[in-house]
What does this fold into?
Amino acid sequence: MPRTPHASPQTLRLFEALMKEPTTWRYGYDLSRETDLASGTLYPILMRLTEQSLLEAAWEPSDQPGRPPRHTYRLTGDGVTLAKVRLADAAAKAASRQTAAAKIVRPA
Amino acid sequence: MRRESETGTGETGTGGAGMGEAAMSEPGTNGAGMSGNGLTRFAHRVLTVAVRGRKERGGPWGEAVLAEFDQAAGTAAALRWAAGGLRVAIAERYSRRPTAYRIGLAALAVLLAAPFLVTVKYVPSGSMQPTMEIASRYLVDKVGFRLTGLDYGDVVVHPLPDFPERETERRVLGFAGDRLDCRAGHLFRNDVAVDEPYLTEGTVTECEPATVPPGELYTLGDHREVANDSRLSGFVPADSVTGRVVLLG
It folds into this structure.
């Protein structure tokens, strides 16, 4: 069975964070804090998603002088569609797992 | 794509101001990277070098991590951020190189590491016949056995207890706590006959009963009639083992 791309728990956590307000541009650090992913995990995912045009990235000049511009991210249309599918899949899987577990605990 | 990004930047004018306010409301986060302690500054320096090298600007993703560095509140968060940033910088740097270059680099790394991991040796004596003939070559794994541990029947390399300057190959037949003895020319471990298919047919093993003390091994040569092994020179300290034979050639 081929592996489903962009379905890892880490990627799902990122999708969840991005889908709260899909049209807002988000900062990397805030995403890292919200998803509880380390930078070394988060950024490779961001890189992958951007490479496949699921995410768009832009430089935003800092409003405070003397600070470097910050990189911001948001899902593209394709990205939003995929995130919805992946999150729905994950929710369905979790639900079926729960019923399976209930069956083991309480045999009918 | 680029045009979209441009309009995106325009849109975030208001969003950016919102973020500014958020930063204001948390005075601790503001400029923590710049006014932080030595460790934080050092981490920032290391990350900058990793991202940029000698260039003015590094790759976009490395720069992105670097630009977020001063958001991290506290030394621990800053160090974690920088550590992940190193991974990003390395991944970005090497993903830009052509595949052939990366394969070459990996091959070079293997070549450099190999002498520390495996080595080729010559069999100095006939004490492991018929498994190992005199002057034949074999490959020794010097690291793997430390991770996986040894098992009964493994052929290991260790210095001879009575000639510490000479290394030899022997088969591990007893670990700490095992009781070994010989009955009618066969080796018994804890009263169970040891299956030894590697011996020449008709081999007679003679030994004194022995119980292996903690931290020691009981090792024998396959050529029982001539081998100077644990029957003669005693137990072998487990930590004196330098390798495990993985390939005969």
Remarks:
- Helices of chain B lie at 2-25, 32-35, 38-52, 60-68, 75-95, 99-117, 144-148, 230-233.
- Residues 154 and 172 of chain B are 6 Å apart (CA to CA).
- Residues 1-33 of chain B have pLDDT under 50 and may be disordered.
